[in-house]
Amino acid sequence: MTIKIALVQQANRGIRRDDLDRSIRGIREAAARGAQLVILQELHTGLYFCQTEDTAVFDQAEPIPGPTTDELSAVARELGVVIVASLFERRAPGLYHNTAAVLDADGALAGIYRKMHIPDDPGYYEKFYFTPGDLGFEPIDTAAGRLGVLVCWDQWFPEAARLMALAGAEILVYPTAIGWNPDDPTDEQARQREAWITVQRAHAVANGLYVAVCNRTGFEADPSGTTAGARFWGSSFVCGPQGEMLAQAGTDEETVLVVEIDRARSEGVRRIWPYLRDRRIDAYQDLLLRYRDMLGT
Predict the structure, then answer these.
(1) How far apart are CA 285 and CA 297, in angstroms?
(2) H-only helix segments in the chain
(3) What is the spatial distance between Cα 126 and Cα 191, in angstroms, rounded to a whole number?
(4) Does 127 qualify as catalytic in the annotation?
(5) Is 254 annotated in the active site?
(6) Which of 17, 18, 120, 240 is the most buried (most CB within 10 A)?
């Protein structure tokens, strides 16, 4: 079965109404071009606020269901498209998650995924804001197929992709916010971007699945003024189950990337590269260790 996937790569301004409207315009353009699945970038309703630690930012969080999912639900129902939206979830006072909400083509909330791997690095102070996810790696069934939704930092971990594949995911989906430190030399910037692309293409190969990655673009200043800010490198892409690049956006452009895929291709690839058949599940117990040191802990 062929479907069209759309990635809405945008540069955010930090005004919620404006940023959400830009996302919705991208969804409408994607639907007009025949997309059945539309993926928005990580935290698409505002700036990437994790460059600093500021308790006032928690005021931006919202429940799910809530205002944004209600609005996107109406859009999904009107256009008959599946939407993956990445939101700052307020679950309870003092309890917040980085959550992807999936709106089905009839407007129903098909499911949510709470980001499992939470970074804490210069310019990416997410542990201050987000509690690690507690829903595991469970695909979400939609009119566009069974989606293995993961979020940004999750994309570096092969275990996350594998567990989604083992649970029957048909497409791996990564809403993302990643970019360069403008102070880094250009060769280091190039290595970072290529590593990001390579690891996700490897997930496609290792699992025989399509991978769709939607990243933000544009420069966002550090509110504290202590660093050079973040220049998000865009480069949203879709690759096939052998890692083949099907389409990719530029680094510094706002765009709606639409790609047609044949979901049946995964079956064909897995028949000639049967990794799931040949996995030595009897010998992988040590994967549950943090590290194999002298103490075996």
Answers:
(1) 12
(2) 16-32, 67-79, 158-166, 186-207, 265-272, 275-278
(3) 23
(4) no
(5) no
(6) 240
pLDDT digit string (tens) for 166-189? 999 999 999 999 999 999 999 999
239: annotated active-site residue = no
Query: What does the pLDDT average to over 136-147?
Result: 98
Q: Please check whether residue 293 lies inside any domain of the structure.
A: no
Quote the domain boundaries for residue 127.
Answer: 2-288
Domain count, the chain: 1
Give domain status of residue 297, yes or no.
Answer: no
Reported as a single tens digit per residue, the pLDDT across 33-44 is 999 999 999 999
- What predicted TM-score, i.e. pTM, was given to this entire model? 0.97
The residues facing 85 across adjacent strands are 101
> Is 72 within 8 Å of 106 (Cβ atoms)?
no
- The answer to whether position 294 is within a domain reads no
Q: Is 296 within a domain?
A: no
- What's the confidence (pLDDT) of residue 293? 84
Cα distances from 76 to residues 9, 103, 263, in angstroms, run: 18, 7, 21
Name the active-site residue from 4, 50, 115, 239. Answer: 115
Read off the tokens for 175.
């809403």
Q: Which position among 4, 42, 50, 220 bears the catalytic label? A: 42
Residue 9 to residue 57: CA distance in whole angstroms: 23
Q: Indicate the pairing of strand 140-142 with strand 145-149.
A: antiparallel
